[in-house]
Amino acid sequence: MIKKFLLLWLLATTTLGWAQQPSRPLPVFDAGDLAAETAAALSTLESARIATGVLLDRAVMVSDPHLYTGGFDSPVTTYAAWQQQYWQFYQSALDRSGLLTPEQLEANIQTRLQRGELPLLVLDYSYNELLPDAAAQGLIRIDSVNERVYDGPDRSRSPYTTGRVFAIAVPGYVHRSQTTSLYVGTEFYFGNAASPSSLYVNLGDNLGFRNVTMGSTVPLSSTSATQSSASASAAPNITVYNALEAAGANAVLRQGRPSVPPDMALSISATRTWPGSSPASAIAWVKWGRGNSSGKFRKPLVFVEGIDFPRYSGDPDDLALNYLVAYPPTSPGITNIPLNHPQFGVGYRQGEAGWNEMIEFNEEYPSLEKLPALRQALQEPANPQEQGYDIIYLDYTDGADVIQNNAMTLVDLLTHISNNRVPDGEETIVLGASMGGQVARFALAWMEQQNLCHNTKLYISFDSPHRGGNIVLGVQHMLDRLSGVSPFGGRFRDKREMLKRPASQQMLIYHYDADATTLRNGWQNWQNSPGSFPSHMRKVAVSNGDVTGRTLPNYHPGMMILRTTGIAPPGWGRNEAFALPGRSFKGDNNTVFAYRRPYGIRWHTKQVNPGTTPYDTSPGGTRTTAKTFNNENWLTRQYFDTGASIDTFIPLISALGITDAGSIGAANVNYNVQANIPESDRPNPSKYPFDAYFAPGTSEPHVQITNGQASSQGKPSYYSNNGAWVQNEMLESSHRLPTTLTSGYNYGSLFRRLLPSVTIAAGGILSINQTGLPVSGGTSATRVPPTDASFDLYTSACGSVVTVQQDGRFVVGNADGQRSATVRFGRGSLLDLRNRGLVTVHTGSVLRIQDGATLVVRNGSTLQNNGQIVIESGAFICIERGGSIQGQQPTYQSGVNSGANPTLGLGSLDCQAAPTPTCSPAWITLQKSTTAEVCIGSVVDISAISNNGAQVTAWRVDNGSLLSESPTGAMVQVGSYPGTTTIYADYTAAPGCPGSGTATTYINVVNQLYGQSCDQMRMANTPAAVYPNPADTYVDVRNPFTNDKPYHVELYNDRGRLLLSQTGRESVIHLETKVFPAGLYHIQVRQGKTMHRFNIAIQH
User: Fold this and answer.
1) What class is the 1034-1098 domain?
2) For the structural domain made of 264-462, what CATH number should be given?
3) pLDDT tens digits for 362-377?
């Protein structure tokens, strides 16, 4: 398996902000096509003088053919190297009419693999090659202006030398538990040499060579296969000898299934589809934790994988996986797949990785070396009394699809887990690595917006790009240029196509392809929008970046990252890539990539803006982008020179989502997290969105799992211990609250803030942030009295039921008011006070019954309110005759429902009519669509966020102008003047309620932004705006395009069904929404290939 160019576990206003493309006009750049240019340069040579019909110089030699001479000392060949060798032979051949194209060859191999036979691939050909000094001897003439090569002037001697290539390979895997054979046949014998009638084959099984007739098979044993992907330096597994030509070669056999299989495989076909996408699917590999024999989930832990490229196998050695990718679901939903299904013969995974990597070390993912040990520790804890976690590995079918679409498979999986857990099972933990952290973040936040039950208590983001990922821009352009020099999974073309997949476009901060801007902007708009992080759980983040913000050691912006060397043949030309923001090269400033065509003298350069953020060398999770080109499986070291062995993939400030570091396009990449956010175990919402973080003292490889110990595989060692930190978070998240409480229990730790269902029986006291009592749950390290003056506790939308029975007590906050608490009951939840049950809300504390939740105060029970109780709009309340609310009366918002939620099935209750609504003071905050500083002439959207029924009565502007206003007055567009523009919103409360005043915000209008003149900056089109949001009877969509061409607006429901479509040129398109039920909807605004996407809620 070769190293993936895009590592598996990956991976709202202006293009300048999201930084995919330069912000000023730059010269048009064309990376060209190195393979086509090489062939064209040599097409002027006389074919009659090429005796073998194969001119090696016509191909770009990514894998060195001179190593495969037919001797037994030839290197062990992986399938990747053989595929590259075949492609070079194919490109070198003057007449290809009798040769299989790479696609035809791949199809033939697939057919044989599906029969359970691994074909022996043999490449046997003679070639001509230009003498190194042919030009110096006058045997060829180079026209460096027109980039062509000609024979002569000395035609008395041949300009060529001759050579021989003999190489073998075996694709696929030897199955552990299935019969596998090696097929030897003439249809897989390629080259310009005659095919022999038989070959001598040694399978490395101590039986020596056997003579195998063409067209026959040989049984294979898994004992002769390596368990993990083998490198070219591994011991040979198979040797072939051609007696006819006295030639031999070595190749690798690989073993498929891991030693520890999963217990169950769930096929997922998403029941919801993101607009513009096809239904997503996935497989969830399930392994029960120690002590769980119930067949249901007890301690569920979901691993959400990162970006995965099944369409482009990333590794030709995994060709056998291409046909098994995706067990096709028969219908929407989740079904159980038999583990003995033949498609699982080579391992439990879809695409490039899956359950296999949870069990065994994979040479090509050294950062995951400690993952199998972490899995074992989680499933088989050191304490024999501790139950292990049930691990569920989410493995996408198309792991590079739109992130939101793959998130729909996680939505269904979380619902399935919630519906199939044991009665006393714990809530779910979700760990998302790289792009998996984005999939998980979206799925969890979306479920909360939809009031769906995710029943998740802890979200762990592991080196995930919350503000974008980075692949060296210069190397991206080099990849584009080299895209034709390699044919199969390891080919540069496929790597380029990986960059162009939707998920890659969404996450990369800088992208070589200008068409990626739309997806990137749309995704970043969502990431920066309110509610884009889930709120009903603890959220923590792990970064592999240096916590002190130091640039990668011995690295600097503008340094050379990768180049083709002078050792390479002239057919390479010259190619050089530099770190952002580039360097001066041949008179061109800020050059990130430069190349010279084969046999040519002119340099072509790609430039960027001088202020481009230097992410390539910033602290963060690193990758070996440049080193990948010198892959030992291709044997290419002599052709590339790597100035940098690593570069930054996920910047520190992105993995931790640090907004305090500035905008993405002008961020402080050396932000010192340790100094600026010293309390790593506490939330700091003004600087970052998580409750806690972990980052090491030096930058590590992306998604490097560490346990404080050295590598046992001979890889670089890293001595942080993020594995222990993650395990501690999981242990501390366990509330250990019994389903029936008969003693004291005190909530007050930030590790545990999700309130499950519980019955508080006689003698039971459930306290929230009670002074003097140690908090309950977690580990002994956190069982100390509460330390926070205030504490939030909440239920999820999973129908949590808290029943306070006779002589049971539920206490919110502390009697002296020095420790307060807020408890929120969410949709579908119930607080049920039975006869002689007591709930006390102390001074300074709050009990909120939210939309869709129910409060029942039965006959004989008491609700003592010394603080504040809020019954929100849409909540249900039942106070039976004889039930008592003492102290202060609750605050009732308008729209409160009398009686219990009928879906709860509580039977007959003697409920009194809901009291007349009372009011809390109303107020308004103003939200801007941009940062505090804008260029002169910018138009800024100002939105009024109202609370407790506040309404805007008038907008006023100092040093600016009101351009437009939404019909409800909730949004206004402001044109800014030089200096400071101040915006005022006068507001009043609903009739009969207190609260009125003026909300204020301001904008600084400048001539320069991010160190550049506003006049020189090429600002991207302002994205469309939709308002009001939430909508009721209508929604207006503003034209985001600066031209007068028509644009299209489409409204979709949450199942992806198109409901409305309008086309126009006007500044605002008006959509009537009153006929649609309440829920989440999606709006697409497009013109040509440019599209903006928005989520909008409709509420009536």
Assistant:
1) mainly beta
2) 3.40.50
3) 777 889 999 999 999 9
